[in-house]
Amino acid sequence: MGATRIVFLGPPGAGKGTQAKRVVVDLGLEHLSTGDILREEVARSTGLGKKAKGFMDRGELVPDDLIIDMIRGRIERAKKGFVLDGFPRTVAQAEALDRISTLDAVVNIDLARAEVVRRLTARRVCRACGTIYNLGFNLAAGTTRCEACGGELYQRDDDQPSVIENRYDVYERSTAPLIAFYRARGLLKPVDGKLGSDRVFAEVMRILAA
Ligand code: ADP
Ligand code: ADP
Ligand code: ZN
Known about the structure:
This protein has a five-stranded parallel beta sheet, sandwiched between helices. Strands 6-5-7 form a three-stranded antiparallel beta sheet. It has one domain: Rossmann fold, CATH 3.40.50. It is α/β, with parallel strands linked by helices. It contains nine helices and eight strands. The chain is 49% helix and 16% strand. Strand 5 (123-126) and strand 6 form a beta hairpin. Helix 4 (64-77) packs parallel to helix 5 (91-100). The longest helix has 15 residues, at 161-175. 34% of the residues are buried. The site of one adenosine-5'-diphosphate has 19 residues, from helix 2 and helix 3.
């Protein structure tokens, strides 16, 4: 029996969203992206969205209690299993997750800072279907429409060089300690994020089937 309760860990831009979208289709799991949920709350100007926006624009983490309240029910309702993408991001969030669900695997997709900056400045996302593109490898310069659905492509507000640098600092300070946290629990599965997207996907699927 393969893994069904999965966390994707890694710096911003490592490819967590790209891989999570493929993995959930193949394995029939729920994709739970805290970044996507937050961006939707911001777009709808909900109470949570209003509280979260400033943190997100600066590349800081949204406070733990808000995130945990936001994600708990969704994890509990994902009866067939889930891929958590962007959660947990702090030790306090990981401890809260321990109280909500057990996990089968934590896939750590690693990527160095210089490559993160390169990738995120070139990231474009479809506003309609959420497909993730990159000017560096799967999107021709000047393309404005999504190849999958024709939706408008946009650049995230936080994908600017100064905010990206801060997000990487925040990752190193607050999220990287989770590598040791999950290694100590025997759950950590390292993957090299520099590989091409198809190679990363094959590696992730091999790990999750084991
Ligand atoms: P994350 O969810 O970890 O922030 P994304 O999946 O959004 O990362 O990927 C960040 C950017 O890098 C996107 O523009 C995406 O198209 C691109 N990307 C993802 N995986 C790879 C890869 N293996 N090689 C090159 N570029 C990639
Ligand atoms: P990336 O693609 O760079 O990994 P995400 O889309 O996962 O970024 O997150 C975007 C922003 O949303 C983060 O910079 C942070 O402000 C907020 N955020 C997302 N997930 C969390 C979390 N688990 N804890 C706190 N803040 C979060
Ligand atoms: Zn689209």
